[in-house]
Design brief:
Blueprint lengths: L2 H8 L3 H11 L1 H16 L4 H29 L2 H21 L4 H13 L4 H13 L2 H32 L2 H20 L2 H5 L16 H31 L2 H23 L7 H16 L8 H12 L2 H15 L5 H52 L1 H5 L9 H5 L16
Length: 419
Amino acid sequence: MAAGYLEILRARHAARLLTGTLVGRLPNATAAIAIVLFVRAEGGTYGLAGGLAAVYGVANAVGQPVLGRLVDLHGQPRVQLPAALASALAMAGFAVTGTHPLPLAYACVAAAGLLTPPLEGGLRALWPSVLGREEQVHTAYAMDAVAQEVMFTVGPLLVTLCVSLWSAEAALLILNAVGVLGALSVVVSPPSRAWRSAPREAHWLGALRSPGLLVLLGALLFVGMALGSITVASVPYADDHGGDAVYGWLMAALGLGALIGGTAYGARRWTGEPARRLRVLVALLAVCYLPLTLMPGAVAMVLLTVLAGVFLAPCIACAFVLVDRHAPSGTVTEAFSWLVTTFTVGASVGTGLAGPVVEAGGALWGFAVPGVAGGVSLLVLLATGRVLAAPAGRAVVAASSENDPNRAAEPRFSSGDRA
């Protein structure tokens, strides 16, 4: 099963790019919990902590596609590293000044989120030039989705470790400094320095002028809503079945399920249309959310939560393939960044929606939300099947790559893909 992943990691620069990207994204993965712990250490309220974390999240959602477009226009090193440095300095300013004065705290957090470098989209833009072969690129997308789950599992543990050893302020400073080093490792690598986006048509909508991409964003918005709602619905369930320890196990189980599913998905070749495969995966994802409404004992619920996470990473990996296919020429980094933003916004909406639902109907109705959201995502894909199945219609820029050996163009693969 691991042979495909090992083949990817043995490719020149692949392990460095994956590791550097994951390390560079640590500040983003840990921002919410680090901000909350820091504000509480400063004596602030949970409302203030939540407000600052929300501002960071919204700013990050806005900044990713904007910086992604700048990467497509100007290259990775000229955007990614300055953005990483600026984001880290803004978070350092927040750590040093604290929550007073409050407008400055909000400004620092907003700047840190807005300027977070689009390393995730940048890595996916690099895979074709690093690996070349179609099946390897699609396996790399699956490995990328699995690695995300590892990062979002390990990241919070690193925050709590830094807080326990030093302080919440030190956690903010250290993790953001480490993030800059990760970004630096990526942008000084030969693939990142050589990469150039394909020529693009000037258009104010950028990647959003692609109907296929809009469909994917609509579907993934509801998948994000499903994931966000589970994190809220699990709180009252855990309160009735053992408290914080059970909640921690449920969240870990969700990540474990995604790890298992993503690893299995990326370990084999898939034939046929990725659009059809995505519909099947989303349908399975929605079905696996439904048993959560049974709300059995803690051990059984943990197992059901593992099942609920199994098809998440495969859905995301398959969506990556379709984003690469439907993004207009010269907008690949921006397109991947839009996917990140949409999923983040969906998770935030799901969290906000699940709160009132849980208050009105308890954990049972809260766990019904992800099943409904998954079903709506499937309906979006079914209603727009022709759009996703249509050829991407993008020119592959071969001549410029042949004339300039240092130019890493954006290889595109035919619709008969193998992931």
